[in-house]
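Regression test case RT-17, inverse folding.

Input:
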């Protein structure tokens, strides 16, 4: 038995320990945020386990059918949604929940109410489950300080008002990336301990990247600046090497790669979808918050993404996010286009 290795394993910075350390820096803190986060983490562990079994469940004829007990087997995205709604409500720290799976916002009953609003996509990229591509959960958290009756306007706030955001990616390993407004930290689930361990402290995105990430299948519908930018990535005129195209089609996986290696992720508006495809509250805002905290930028084609004020809970927006210099280039192209008009 390797006692030295085991001794090392006892001195791990777990997610719980990390969050408690952060909490101790705020003497006025009551621990509500820590409790809320622990419920989100529990939901992620549950979904991670379910994602890992999904293919197997399908192989033996369970998913989407009735099992021997006569219970309906739920599709994974529906199951994930239920897991997170129950985890968040039972924390006793939330008042409004907005989920990608639910048409209306969920108002928590007064007896279980707290001061936080959570916006989330319980399983982003779920159409990729069957082919083994990484998928994930994205979330953002707002705090209500007035203590009044919660109303829908409390979640229709610009992303810059979020107190925390993150995502959990279910891939070759289960990775949890979090920001509470002071840097970005990545944790990896150690299945033998059932704990998230800090493996990527203080992530910083490179100032400029070597790759771009976009669905080129939409190219014929793109606007001028996007088309020009992608053309420039492929055929640079300044003597620099062309950028590599890296597109998975699962936002969590594409953004995580961009965060670690640099580059730019684009989901522009086009003739078919003028507002793009990605939802503002639980896709654009959390990812933009993370990228800015890591030293990158996020831009909608008109303004800084986190300044956008949503009017509806499922509103969509174009998004360009990634390395600072790469986003600067696309901003310059949009500014030039605006001048022409």
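Golden output:
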């Amino acid at each position: 038995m390797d006692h030295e290795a085991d001794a090392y394993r006892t001195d791990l910075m777990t997610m719980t320990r990390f969050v408690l350390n952060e909490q101790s820096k705020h003497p006025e803190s009551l621990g509500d945020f820590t409790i809320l986060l622990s419920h989100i983490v529990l939901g992620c562990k549950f979904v991670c386990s379910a994602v890992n079994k999904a293919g197997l469940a399908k192989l033996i004829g369970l998913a989407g059918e009735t099992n021997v007990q006569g219970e309906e087997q739920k599709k994974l995205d529906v199951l994930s949604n239920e897991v997170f709604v129950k985890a968040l409500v039972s924390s006793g720290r939330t008042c409004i929940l907005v989920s990608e799976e639910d048409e209306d916002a969920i108002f928590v009953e007064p007896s279980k109410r707290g001061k936080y609003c959570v916006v989330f996509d319980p399983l982003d990229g779920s159409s990729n489950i069957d082919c083994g591509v990484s998928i994930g959960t994205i979330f953002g958290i707002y705090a209500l300080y007035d203590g009044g009756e919660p109303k829908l306007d409390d979640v229709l706030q610009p992303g810059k008002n979020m107190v925390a955001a993150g995502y959990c990616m279910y891939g070759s390993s289960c990775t949890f990336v979090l920001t509470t407004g002071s840097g970005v930290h990545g944790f990896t689930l150690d299945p033998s301990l059932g704990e998230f361990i800090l493996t990527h402290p203080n992530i910083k995105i490179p100032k400029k990247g070597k790759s771009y990430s976009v669905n080129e299948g939409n190219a014929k519908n793109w606007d001028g600046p996007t088309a020009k930018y992608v053309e420039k990535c492929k055929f640079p005129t300044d003597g620099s090497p062309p950028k590599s195209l890296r597109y998975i089609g699962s936002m969590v996986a594409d953004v995580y790669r961009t965060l670690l290696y640099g580059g730019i992720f684009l989901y522009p508006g086009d003739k078919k979808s003028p507002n793009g495809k990605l939802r503002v509250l639980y896709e654009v805002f959390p990812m933009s918050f993370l990228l800015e905290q890591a030293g990158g930028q996020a831009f909608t084609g008109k303004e800084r993404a986190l300044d956008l004020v949503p009017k509806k809970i499922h509103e969509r927006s174009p998004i360009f996010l990634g390395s600072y210099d790469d986003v600067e280039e696309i901003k310059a192209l949009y500014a030039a286009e605006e001048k022409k008009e």
